[in-house]
Amino acid sequence: MPVDPVRDVAIDVLLRVFDRGVHLDAALDKSLRKRGMTERGRRFLTHLVYGTVRHRLLCDHVLTGICTEPLDRLPSPILTILRMAVFQALFCSQVTRPAMVHTSVELAKRRGHAGLARLVNAVLRRAPDSLDDVVLPDRDEDLARYLAVRHSMPLWMARDWLAEFGPEQAEVLCAASNTQAPITLRANTLRNPAKILIERLEKSGIAAAKQTDIPEEVTIADTGRALRSKWFQQGCFMLQDAASMLPVHLLEPEAGDWVLDLCAAPGGKATHIAQRTECGSLVVALDIAPNRITAIRENLDRMGMRNVFVVCGDGAQPPLAPGFDRVLVDAPCSGLGTIRRHPDLKWRVTPESVARLARQQAALLRSGVELCKNGGLIVYAVCTFTRQETREVVQTVCKEGRVTLEDGPGYFDKWQTDKGQYRILPSDGAWDGFFLTRLRKRF
Description:
It is built from 18 helices and 13 strands. The chain is α/β, with parallel strands linked by helices. Strands 5, 6, 7, 8, 9, 10, 11, 12 and 13 form a 9-stranded mixed sheet that branches. Strands 2-3-1-4 form a 4-stranded antiparallel sheet. Helix 5 runs antiparallel to helix 6 and helix 17 crosses helix 18.
């Protein structure tokens, strides 16, 4: 019998992610562009691949208990089929058990041979029907291991979050990290305030509403339709999480300022600065990667930003002279605050990569301080919440004596963790995880 085409494409996507290290969003986008598929099929494919990646560790835990073969001895396509099947059993209420088993066996025939198909059939007939049937590690004996398995988090990450946030908040954060993030747009206020953008989108059949008190934020339900709309082509908005709009609000750029965005690609914050200052300022958008420079220019052109100059260069050794009124250092980071959108990050980030990034972030922040004029303002921002990439970076640079911490506007108080320091967590629902710091240059 023919295999289910949507599940077959899902296996292709998952193999690229698990075996070749391709980023999940890129692997999925490539398949969606190449394959003709109904809208329902596209949604189911997205649900399958994102869910299997999100819950990989839990699926492996289940499989270890019901599979007679060690998982690392199974051919990669067969292991991937089993993982996707267990995900469906535990999290897809619309998929019946016979359908889950049958489609998985057919996939195993296509990706392996009759013997492997029989193995898949035997394993999945022993699979639990729901999460209630899964035997998890004892949370009282080892809470970190329980959280790691139940919420499919790397063990080091579960331990780190327990140490950082305590048991209750760490569990809430683990659970929230496996939920679907909202889809948010930033209205280009040079062309329409958020209220008018909502009206325009709704007239085009795209549901839109305000979910936060950020003036430019608009939340929608359908990314594809929004990005295909004339309003996107006319530069009326940019796809951007609500939390990533906060750094520019903390920076508070004003008309007439010279402003530097030190790590600017793909241009979300540079265009945000430009729309706030309109045409009375000079904004420099710097990025190290030539291919990302193209993305910045495309967004500037589409959104009609004329006061932004794009420069290709290393933020740690920038080809620029000091003297900027305000500097935004939105540094490359582990991205753990965006796990809801990029669940494959869980399996990429390591303690070693976090330490390496923290050194790079400190170098970039020092550079931002150097390029800022005396008395000027620097904002450091990262979409993560590891202590190494957040307060430890800030402490390291502050100890060097050239900057002081400064509180931002009063509406940031609800996120404040220390003087001039703010943390937003994805457990707050509407937001990705972010850390922000505001610094004033002394000399």
